[in-house]
């Protein structure tokens, strides 16, 4: 058993008869009244996100997990298939277990969080950023750069992001996986 002082991003807890992963949290100490922790939780089984407030010192049941590196192989209509980079065993996961499945490129190495009680995969953590090629975007209009103007672009994985006007088809761009936003152009 843990309590609210042990809450951190990525912690898996049992809450309302389900397993949730903490996405965001904020310790609040108001001037009047007891302290509390405001959290945003994501269900690892359904992918649904809920918000909850725990009072300070509240007991929470944490889930013992371990992380392993897996390589993304392919996806079919129902599942995403991964291979363990150490023993080459394969697992398949539903789309809800992934935070940003549209940014996943074949061959990408991700971290899979596994429940130690039953060896069931709980969720997939993407790297902080990924490099993807722009498959389609409209050409930027010259002189239309008064402010930070952006345009939509389709990446090689099918994901859509907004990029600056100077990005063209075939350019490689770095995308932040937690927000799904453009970070920088990669020069080769």
Automatic annotation (TrEMBL):
Residues 67-122 form the Translation elongation factor P/YeiP central domain. One of its GO terms (molecular function) is translation elongation factor activity. It holds the Pfam family EFP_N. Gene3D superfamilies: 2.30.30.30, Nucleic acid-binding proteins. The keyword Cytoplasm applies. Residues 130-185 form the Elongation factor P C-terminal domain. The keyword Cytoplasm applies. GO terms for cellular component: cytosol. Its main location: cytoplasm. GO terms for biological process: peptide biosynthetic process. Belongs to the elongation factor P family. This is Elongation factor P. The gene is efp.
């Amino acid at each position: 058993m843990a309590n609210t002082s042990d809450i951190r991003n990525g912690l898996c807890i049992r809450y309302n008869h389900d397993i949730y992963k903490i996405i965001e949290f904020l310790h609040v100490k108001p001037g009047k009244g007891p302290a509390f922790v405001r959290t945003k939780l994501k269900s690892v089984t359904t992918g649904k996100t809920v918000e909850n407030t725990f009072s300070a010192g509240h007991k929470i049941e944490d889930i013992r997990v371990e992380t392993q590196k897996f390589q993304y192989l392919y996806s079919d209509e129902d599942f995403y298939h991964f291979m363990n980079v150490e023993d080459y065993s394969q697992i398949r996961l539903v789309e809800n277990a992934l935070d940003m499945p549209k940014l996943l490129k074949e061959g990408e190495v991700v971290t899979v969080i596994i429940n130690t009680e039953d060896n069931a995969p709980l969720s997939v953590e993407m790297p902080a950023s990924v490099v993807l090629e722009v498959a389609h975007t409209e050409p930027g209009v010259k002189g239309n750069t008064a402010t930070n103007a952006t345009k939509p672009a389709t990446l090689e994985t099918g994901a859509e992001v907004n990029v600056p006007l100077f990005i063209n088809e075939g350019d490689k761009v770095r995308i932040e996986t937690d927000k799904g936003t453009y970070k920088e152009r990669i020069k080769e």
